[in-house]
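In response to reviewer comment 3 from the previous cycle, which asked for concrete evidence that the modeling workflow produces usable outputs, we include below a single protein chain processed end to end. The sequence was submitted unchanged, and the resulting structure tokens are shown without manual editing.
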Amino acid sequence: MIGITRATTLHSMMSRCIALFAALLATATAVAHAQTDYPSRVVRIVNPYVAGSTTDVLARALAVGLSSRLGQQFVIENRPGAGGALGTAAVARAEADGHTLLFAPALVLSVYPQARGADTGYKPDALTPICQTFTNAMALAVRPDSPIKRVGDLVAMAKQRPGALNYGHQGPLTIPHLAMEEFLQVAGISVADIPFRGEPLVITDLIGGQIHIASIVLGSAAGQSIRLIGVFAETRHPAFPNVPTVKEQGYDVSPASFGGLLAPAATPAGVVDKLAGACAGAARDETYETVARRAAQPADYYADSDAFQERLTRDIERKAAVLARVKTQP
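The workflow returned the following structure tokens.
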């Protein structure tokens, strides 16, 4: 009797094991099949900024190369709001199948979750890097007829006329905003900040005379009727060789912005690898390179997923220190 009971129990356990194995095999087969067929429909790339911004123009150029390589249309969806956090949160919550992606600067992960906490709706590890396709220097700009010719002029004027000057930027806690605030701290001056909803509006109001100074992404200056007085970089940019860096003018501030294509964190590795391979080619296509040059991109704007992840990890640590300084300001 005992022998029959044990045999029955053993048979039952074996049946459950076989069923479990079959289920796991079916799941693995389905995942592999999905990865092989990816993409199976139109892929949305969310750009969390307004149309016409630097990231928007670059994202549209990259989408052309991705579409041609992966056989499905990659379309750009602009979802501005909260400095980029709104669109980022939407992608972080999206189904992790590679059909909803994000094209954005690293700050949406390195700055906002640390500065705003749970209000962002996502954590720094909510997205996985696919490829870095841009790196931007920041710059200070004025109207062509402004009496401010150099960074020193700005500092002198701010000290002579406390509270009289203002500056515009593309939104709170964006890199142009943080770069300017870090500069103001180093220079020991106070200039009122005016946040905008996107960089095109900043430049429009600068040209129109509504603001005195603009802290912008360097690439946004191309073709604009503005004058650059300093670039936040270690060395001068080849596209603007006559514009001195802020650092060489005596103020050691040189933050940069970088970013590219990201996917929800749970996206299957096979899908991420497929996207990364396509991105490596798309980022070097003539279409993208032409737009990248116009946006003042350096030669090393591209990086693979591993390098992108490493740089993002370092940026999260560095931004924590910058944010601590900003929060302690009166």
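Confidence is low (pLDDT under 50) at residues 19-34. We consider this sufficient to address the reviewer's concern, and the full set will be provided in the supplementary archive.
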